[in-house]
Specification:
- It is built from nine helices and no strands.
- With 193 residues, it is mostly helical.
C-alpha cells in the first residue's frame, strides 16, 4: 500500500486571499481559480482558495460538499492526510444532512472519496466501512463504487470477493476505453485473479 502523496510546490507561490465575497459570481470565480491552480500543481495557493471558499459558502449551499471534497483532495496531495480525512468526512456528513439517502448518487460519491482516501492511507477496513452497505440491488451499483469496494476487499485479502465485485464493476462500465483502463488498474493492483 502506498500512502505517499505528492509533495507541495514552492511556498513562494502563495498570495493573499480576499475574504470579501460579493455573491455567487465571486464564489464561482474563487472555485474556478482554485481548480485552475490545482491543475497547474500550485497546491499551496489552491489550498488557500479552497479554504476561503469553504469558509464563505453559506451553510447548506448545494456546492458545499463538492468544495470540501476538492479542498480535501488538495490537502491529500500536500500530504496532509488527517486534514484531508476531516474534510472528506465533513463532505459526507453534509451530504447526508441534506436528506440524501445513503444510496443517492451524491452520498455514493462522497462515500467513495472518503473510501479511496482511507485506502490510500492503508486503512482498508475503514475504506470498506465508509462505503454504503450492499443490498440486493448492488449488482447495479455504480462502477466507481464497486471498484472502491473491490480494491478495499483485495487489500483486506478477501481475494475471491474482490475478484467477483471487480468483474461486476467492469460489466457496469459502458465505455470500452474506461472499461479497459479500469481492468488494467485492477490487474496492476492485483484485484483481478
Amino acid at each position: 500500500c502506498s500512502g505517499l502523496l505528492r509533495a507541495s510546490r514552492s511556498a513562494a507561490a502563495e498570495r493573499p486571499v480576499s475574504h470579501h465575497m460579493k455573491g455567487q459570481a465571486d464564489l464561482q470565480q474563487l472555485i474556478d481559480e482554485a481548480l485552475r491552480l490545482w491543475g497547474e500543481g500550485r497546491l499551496l495557493v489552491a489550498r488557500r482558495l479552497y479554504k476561503a471558499a469553504s469558509e464563505v459558502i453559506p451553510e447548506g449551499h448545494w456546492r458545499q460538499a463538492e468544495i470540501l471534497q476538492s479542498y480535501a483532495a488538495v490537502l491529500a496531495e500536500l500530504g496532509l492526510a488527517d486534514d484531508a480525512e476531516t474534510q472528506y468526512r465533513e463532505a459526507l456528513r453534509l451530504t447526508m444532512a441534506e436528506g440524501q439517502s445513503p444510496n443517492s448518487l451524491a452520498a455514493q460519491i462522497a462515500a467513495n472519496f472518503l473510501s479511496v482516501h482511507l485506502l490510500s492511507q492503508c486503512r482498508a477496513q475503514e475504506a470498506l466501512d465508509a462505503l454504503p452497505e450492499q443490498d440486493d440491488h448492488s449488482k447495479n451499483e455504480p462502477a466507481f463504487l464497486s471498484a472502491a469496494r473491490a480494491e478495499a476487499l483485495s487489500a483486506l485479502g478477501r481475494i475471491s470477493e474482490a475478484d467477483f465485485i471487480a468483474r461486476r464493476a467492469l460489466g457496469n462500465v459502458s465505455d470500452e476505453v474506461r472499461r479497459q483502463e479500469l481492468e488494467r488498474r485492477f490487474i496492476e493492483n492485483g484485484v483481478l485473479r
